TrEMBL record:
Coiled coil: none annotated. It comes from Paenibacillus alba. NCBIfam families: transpos_IS1182 (NF033551). PANTHER family: TRANSPOSASE (PTHR33408), TRANSPOSASE DDE DOMAIN-CONTAINING PROTEIN (PTHR33408:SF2). InterPro entries: IS1182_transpos, Tnp_DDE_dom, Transposase_InsH_N. This is IS1182 family transposase. Signal peptide: none annotated. Residues 355-478 form the Transposase DDE domain.
Length: 483
């Protein structure tokens, strides 16, 4: 049962917060900046209003997840820190003497209360609303790009994940007491997953019962991460599959397995829209949705700045119809006109090659015909036949017994005359220099908020991770610009 109205925190020790937490503390500033009652309004229908015991305040649960996104800690460690960190307790609207939640409540909150909630658009929309109210967003341009996130489970085998986390734990222990090497259980030397799990469990048991150092902060964090992997993620480790993750490419010889987050951001570096897709999706095809989402969030969009992936024929036509300047250099190879089965093959601008719907990239390209003589030139892309033979999508695409598999694209640069003329102007060159800002934002998401690797499996889990990380970076940016 959820309380039907929010209650104030009453405590004889409440004044401690004013003595301990400075005015410029980030969590204090976020609390003063954001009215989190919108979380209660969005989630109250997911609770019973009449029966059962009182539920933990959904705003507090949401704030715990926000703290996880900001500080990149496990459920156990974020709850443990809220036990003694007064800035955490203040942010969570707790009295100094209040007890903390059980860490397992966070898992239930994510799975039961946030399921099927469009959290990504809601949180981005809230931050854009705050930025507009504070008169922070003044530009009418958005910068677009995509950043990739590796899947948690498939980039490494389950045994490698356990080995990596147990190695980090041992390293932390050795830094404190190197004599522990002789006391640790014998390492697993086989490739059997069950043996690695047993070793990790023995290591955990030894540190918790015999070492006497398990409560040290430098040991607790890697220990809790290993426990969380062995206990909470055991089922996923055994399956070792993320059904939603897909193979994507950053260049001709660089691939990743996971997801893409397509972003739109203002020149003030406030993210206005995001779309989470599987790794093989084409960047350019998300542009129109990003523009519409930015408008829905409250942005006026007159200019779009992006790389060559966004200069597709459809995007140029859409921009012209909506009186939007598209600051994106043309690449003749991206031209969509006249291609057959264009939904099955998509151009990867980083590698300069096409990718089929199974995620396989062409191995080479050959140009046929002469420029300006006779018919249009075509680019023919050659795929690895051995992969085609085993491909689950080969029906209607690859003919059994064929010695080669190719895909040809007709080059029709004349259709882009207006865009070609625009990209030669001083206005185009000046605005295109703003594109670096979104690369910096991608780096911030990955290196400060753990967005380089998915924290859970599945597209829904990735969307939740994206929602909290983007909400956090937007709030931090608003605080900086509001000073």
């Amino acid at each position: 049962m959820i309380q039907q109205q929010q209650s104030m925190t009453l405590s004889p020790y409440i004044e401690l917060y004013n003595l301990i937490i400075p005015k410029d503390n980030m969590l204090r500033q976020i609390n003063e900046l954001v009215n989190f009652s919108f979380v209660y309004e969005e989630l109250k229908e997911r609770y019973c209003l009449e029966n059962g015991r009182n539920a933990i305040d959904p705003i507090r649960m949401f704030k715990y997840l926000l703290l996880k996104a900001i500080f990149e800690l496990s459920d156990v460690d974020i709850v443990e820190r809220s036990r003694y960190d007064m800035s955490f307790k203040y942010f969570l609207d707790m009295a100094p003497e209040d007890s903390v939640i059980d860490p397992s409540s966070l898992t239930k909150f994510r799975k039961l209360r946030l399921k099927d909630l469009n959290l990504l658009d809601m949180l981005i929309g809230k931050t854009v609303e705050i930025a507009i109210e504070k008169n922070i967003i003044k530009s009418t341009a958005i910068i677009v790009d995509a950043t990739h996130t590796k899947a948690r489970y498939n980039q490494k085998s389950p045994r490698e994940i356990l080995q990596d986390r147990s190695r980090k734990l041992r390293k932390a222990v050795y830094a404190i007491d190197e004599s522990m090497k002789a006391k640790f259980p014998t390492k697993n030397t086989t490739d059997v997953l069950e043996n690695e799990i047993n070793y990790c469990q023995k290591l955990i048991d030894f540190l918790e019962t015999e070492s006497g150092i398990a409560q040290l902060p430098k040991i607790m964090e890697p220990l809790n991460l290993l426990k969380e992997t062995v206990e909470d993620d055991l089922e996923q480790l055994r399956i070792s599959a993320d059904q939603d993750a897909r193979l994507g490419h950053k260049s001709a010889d660089s691939a990743f397995f996971g997801y893409k987050t397509h972003l739109a951001m203002t020149e003030e570096r406030i993210i206005t829209a995001a779309i989470v897709t599987t790794g093989e999706k084409n960047d350019g095809k998300q542009l129109q949705t990003l523009i519409e989402k930015s408008k829905a969030a409250g942005m006026e969009v007159r200019t779009v700045i992006g790389d060559t992936a966004y200069s597709e024929k459809d995007n140029i036509a859409y921009s012209k119809e909506n009186n939007i300047e598209l600051v994106s250099k043309l690449n003749p190879q991206i031209t969509q006109g006249g291609r057959s089965r264009e939904d099955e093959f998509e151009f990867n601008k980083d590698a300069g090659l096409y990718v089929c719907k199974a995620g396989h990239m062409a191995t080479r390209r050959a140009r046929q015909g002469k420029k300006g003589i006779g018919k249009n030139q075509t680019d023919t892309y050659y795929f690895d036949v051995e992969k085609c033979k085993r491909c689950p999508f080969k029906e209607g695409c690859y003919k059994d017994g064929a010695k080669s598999k190719t895909y040809s694209v007709s080059i029709k640069s004349d259709e882009h005359t207006a865009q070609m003329a625009f990209q030669e102007t001083e206005n185009f060159r000046k605005k295109s220099k703003e594109r670096y800002k979104i690369e910096a934002k991608n780096s911030e998401l990955k290196h400060r908020h753990g967005y380089d690797v998915a924290t859970s499996s599945g597209l829904l889990g990735m969307e939740l991770q994206g929602a909290m990380a983007i909400f956090a970076v937007n709030l931090k940016r608003i605080l900086k610009l509001n000073d």
